[in-house]
Design a protein that fits this description.
Order of helices and strands: HHHH
Number of helices: 4
Structural class: mainly alpha
Strand content: under 5%
Radius of gyration: 26 Å
Largest sheet: none
Length: 204
């Protein structure tokens, strides 16, 4: 009787594992399809970035022809600093998000030592992010100076190209980072799900 009961329990556990693996397989399929879509969108986004950079190069050539040397220097400096500050803000925001997730895990596991370490890291990263935002404000002020002399030197169409290039460059950079983060997260989820399914199969 005891042996029969054990066999029933074992059979029930096996069915539960099979059902769980079935759900995991469905989830893997769903995430895989989403990843394919994200990668296609990212590819299109990279094409848009390339086209926008080409427009930016055209604007720069016009600036070199119609502006004074000091104005060209200010223009180039602003373009370079704008790219750097966006990259810095994106990098820091990503690090803050990862630190917050790690802290939530440490709190759930009641790991006091890890919690203290992560809280200190998070405080440091948040301060760095605020410092970066202050730097961005400084760069934005330079944008007003650049816009003033470009309005004087460029015709309406050329200035509109400049405005479009700057605005689009910033938006595409943020969107590209967002897509890359989503793809990375999806790939990590897939890896974890496939790993757990392998472990379940071995247990059977």
């Amino acid at each position: 009787m005891k042996k029969a009961s054990q066999e029933i329990e074992g059979s029930s556990e096996e069915l539960d594992t099979q059902e769980l693996n079935k759900k995991k397989a469905e989830l893997i399929n769903s995430i895989s399809k989403k990843l394919e879509g994200l990668k296609l969108e990212l590819q299109e986004l990279e094409e848009d970035k390339k086209k926008n950079e080409e427009l930016g190069n055209e604007v720069t050539e016009v600036v070199k022809k119609v502006c004074e040397r000091r104005e060209i220097r200010k223009y180039n400096q602003y373009i370079e600093e704008q790219s750097k500050i966006i990259d810095l803000l994106l990098s820091l925001s990503g690090r803050v998000a990862r630190a917050e997730n790690a802290l939530s895990t440490a709190e759930a596991e009641d790991d006091e030592e890890q919690k203290t370490s992560l809280q200190q890291l998070l405080t440091k990263l948040r301060q760095q992010y605020e410092d970066a935002k202050t730097l961005k404000n400084s760069v934005d002020k330079k944008s007003k100076t650049v816009s003033t002399f470009l309005k004087t030197n460029l015709n309406t169409e050329q200035y509109q190209d400049y405005e479009y290039f700057i605005k689009t460059k910033s938006n595409l950079t943020w969107m590209s980072r967002e897509f890359n983060d989503k793809i990375k997260l999806g790939e990590e989820q897939l890896q974890a799900l496939r790993g757990s399914m392998l472990s379940s199969d071995k247990a059977l």
